[in-house]
Design goal:
Strand content: 5-15%
Shape: globular
Radius of gyration: 19 Å
Number of helices: 14
Distance between the termini: 14 Å
Structural class: mainly alpha
Order of helices and strands: HHHHHHHHEHHEEHHHEEH
Largest sheet: 3 strands, antiparallel
Strand order of the largest sheet: 1-3-2
Length: 269
């Protein structure tokens, strides 16, 4: 009989790739910080740099134009919480890979990475995604949804601030539209964002056709046929390997997973 892998063991395994399951998240204080991430990755435009280089750029060189040293340090900490900024983590290294190749897909790439690292934000996906396009999303109802997950954990003021931050992130990714009144819209999936979603599913142990039905691909507001089309495009570009014979699908990432990570995946499976 195949052994049952506990959720704790699975989370520990995924943490090696950069996933985070900390009890909290940057959205208690910030959004997914898309503008800051864009500015940082434009300023430090080299995929070979390490985490310390991002620290120096933000804190010492003030590449994001923050007013005080304390604010710079907080900004760095929040960006680490959201993206790790550590290329030894597959999650961030592959985010950079697609970030530099798919400019249009950057909002969804950032969202996918945020989802994989921020547990509070991650918990709100079922709430947002269940609404059809055109539905008005009430902030108070989102506050109630968050509070229902862990009743009494957050104060009313914190719930309000957090709901605003979370709504702002979903707006930046085009899942919501509107400045004050939020309306459910549709995200714009691209070859890069679909590839990154498939990659996250692959790291989670999913294979074949099921890769197109994971929690990550569901974030893209993308039909199965559209996701297949975009995966084929990514394969033609040489970003991933996509093969399909009838209903049998194989997706591989030979340029994106190193030997050590392949060993982890074999252990995981």
């Amino acid at each position: 009989m195949k052994p049952v892998v506990s959720m704790i063991e699975k989370n520990k395994s995924l943490s090696r790739f950069g996933f985070s399951f900390e009890h909290g998240g940057a959205h208690t204080a910030r959004t997914m910080m898309l503008e800051e991430l864009r500015a940082l990755l434009t300023y430090v435009n080299c995929p070979e740099v390490d985490k310390n280089d991002y620290f120096r750029a933000i804190v010492d060189e003030n590449c994001l134009g923050k007013r005080s040293g304390k604010t710079r340090a907080l900004t760095y900490r929040h960006l680490v919480d959201l993206y790790s900024l550590d290329r030894t983590n597959a999650l961030f290294r592959v985010l950079l890979y697609f970030w530099n190749r798919d400019i249009e897909g950057r909002p969804l790439l950032a969202l996918l990475c945020t989802y994989a690292r921020d547990s509070i934000f991650r918990s709100t996906a079922p709430f947002i995604l269940r609404f059809p396009e055109g539905t008005i999303i009430n902030r108070v109802s989102l506050e109630e949804f968050i509070d229902d997950q862990e009743p009494g954990r957050f104060s009313k003021a914190t719930l309000k601030s957090m709901a605003q931050n979370i709504n702002s992130t979903w707006t930046k990714s085009d899942h919501l539209s509107g400045r004050v009144r939020k309306v459910r819209a549709r995200a714009n999936p691209t070859a890069g964002s679909v590839s990154y979603a498939l990659f996250l599913g692959y790291l989670s142990g999913v294979r074949g056709q099921a890769l197109f039905q994971t929690e990550y691909t569901k974030l893209l507001d993308c039909t199965f046929d559209k996701a297949i089309e975009l995966a084929e495009e990514a394969s033609r570009k040489g970003w991933i390997v996509f093969k399909r014979v009838g209903d049998v699908i194989e997706v591989l990432f030979p340029n994106l997973i190193n030997q050590e990570e392949m060993e982890w995946l074999r252990e995981q499976n």
